[in-house]
Design a protein that fits this description.
Blueprint (H helix, E strand, L loop, with lengths): L2 H20 L2 H6 L1 E9 L2 E5 L2 H18 L1 E13 L5 E11 L3 E2 L4 E10 L2 E9 L6 H6 L6
Parallel strand pairs: 1-7
Antiparallel strand pairs: 1-2, 3-4, 4-5, 4-6, 6-7
């Protein structure tokens, strides 16, 4: 693992995680390079416009509200700088709900990070979750069931 790559990924995860928790779409959006590809076990979804990213952001926040999310703990477990200057990384996500209850087991997410306009941005991520789960549906750009 490249130490600098890990620091970069951890910083992006912290910033985007706090933006999700606080409802700060502008900060969240700054860290995504569109079009961005989101994947689950059941398929993929390309987000091509800021409006689509905003809809996904809102759906994820709605899911967090439904489960009583208190904290989002994401930790980089592997990060490597690539010859093209991008970073390929894997992080684990833990959703902590009220009462310090883990919503589900930690799950891995693999992502690609690209540096553009002075900001590290997520361009693709593969979430090890079901696309039919409420969270997976939000990632796939689908309305809550």
């Amino acid at each position: 693992m490249t130490a600098d790559a890990k620091k970069i990924v951890d910083a992006v995860l912290e910033t985007t995680g706090q933006a999700l928790l606080q409802g700060d779409f502008e900060t969240y959006a700054r860290h995504f390079l569109l079009p961005a590809r989101f994947e689950t076990f059941d398929g993929h979804h390309s987000v091509t416009t800021p409006a689509e990213l905003a809809a996904m952001f809102a759906a994820i926040r709605d899911h967090y509200a439904q489960i009583g999310l208190k904290d989002l703990v994401r930790s980089c477990v592997s990060a490597q700088m690539q010859p093209d200057g991008s970073i390929k990384a894997t992080h684990e996500t833990r959703m902590i709900c009220h009462g310090n209850v883990l919503h589900r087991a930690a799950y891995p997410v693999m992502g690609t990070y690209i540096h553009k306009d002075g900001v590290w941005q997520i361009n693709a991520c593969q979430h090890a979750v079901s696309g039919t789960s409420p969270y997976g549906r939000a990632l796939m750009g689908q309305a809550a069931a």
